[in-house]
Amino acid sequence: MTTSASRPVHPQHGTHDPTSGTPARRPGSVRRTTTVDLLRPDGTGGEVLVDARGRDLVTPAGGGEARTAGVSRVRGRVDYPRNAALAEIDTDPALAGVQRLIGTPVASGFRAKVVEAVPVAAGARAIVHLLLDDLPGAVLVSGYAVHAHDGHVDMRHDRTQAEAFAAGRLDLCSGFRRDGTMLVQLSETGIFPMPTGPVAPDLESPADPAGWHEYETLPVGAIRRRRRMDVTREDGFFRVDAMFRDSYVDSGGLELVIHEYTLDAVIDPAELRIETIEAVPRVLPWVECPVAAASAGALAGRTVGDLRPWVRAQLAGTSTCTHLNDLLRSLNDVDGLVPLLR
Fold this sequence. Notes:
Layout: E1 29-39, E2 48-59, E3 67-79, E4 85-92, H1 110-117, H2 119-123, H3 127-133, H4 135-147, E5 152-154, H5 159-167, H6 181-189, E6 191-193, E7 223-234, E8 237-249, E9 255-268, E10 273-283, H7 307-314, H8 322-329, H9 334-337
Antiparallel strand pairs: 1-2, 1-7, 2-3, 3-4, 5-6, 7-8, 8-9, 9-10
C-alpha cells in the first residue's frame, strides 16, 4: 500500500448501498424512531453537545389516526476527549435518577451505569433508555468528525501511539481484524485511514410526514445515529423491520453515511422468541466488514428479553461488527413495544 506525504491512498472501501426513503407504516403497527445528534461547537476535538430524541407511533389496525404512545428527549454535554465524561444531562420528560450519571465516562461500562441509575426506564424498554444506551456508540463514532476532513490520522510521529492504538483494537471486530485493511495500513505506514462514505439519501417520505419524529438539520462536523424499528402483527407472528445509520456532515455541508444496516426478523408472539432473522449491510467502511452480517443468525431461537446482555457477552471478535451489535441489542425493546399492539 502506498501513501503520499500528506494523505494516504485509500484502499477499497466496503459496501456503499444506503437505503432511500422509509417503508409506509402498516395498519396494526408500532414504529419507534430515534436520533442521537452529537455536535461540536468549536469544530475540533473539544466538548460534545448531545441532542437525542425519540418517539413511538402506533398505527391502528382498523384505520383512523395514528397515535403517539411516547416521546422523549435527552440533552447533555460530554467532556471530550479528556475523559469523555458526561458533564451535563437533562431529559424531557424528567427522569428521576438520571443525574447520577454525571461524571461517568461515556464509554465501556456506561450502559450498566444507566441501568443502575434508571432501572424502571430500562426495564420498561422506554425510549429514554434507548437514547441513553446509544450514547457510548455515538460518542465513539463522533471521533470521526475530528479527523474526517483530513481523510486520515497521521501517527507517523509517534509509532508507540500507533502500536498502542492497534493493540487496543486488535480483532475487536471484522473491520479491526489483525490482517485487515485498517490495521495493516496503520502498521505499514503509520497512517490510520478515515474512509469516506456515500452521500446520505433522504429517509423522510413526503407521502408520510409523520413517518419520523421531528429533529433539526445537522450542522457541519456533527454526527447522527438514527434508528427506525417497525413492529407489526402478521400471520400470527410479530414482524420486525429495522434500520440503523451513523452519518456525518462534512466541511462542504454534505451528510455522508458511515455505517448502515437493515434488519428483518420474525418473532413468535407466545414467548417473543426469534424464529428467523437477517441483517443486511448497507454501508460499511472496509471490505472486511460486511461478512459480520452473518453473525445476526446467532440470535435465532433466543427470546428478545435477554438480548442486550447476551449480545454484549456472546457476539465479539472478528465474526461480528460492533455497529451491527448495537442494532441487534435494540431488539430487546420489542417486548416493550408489542403491548402497544394488543
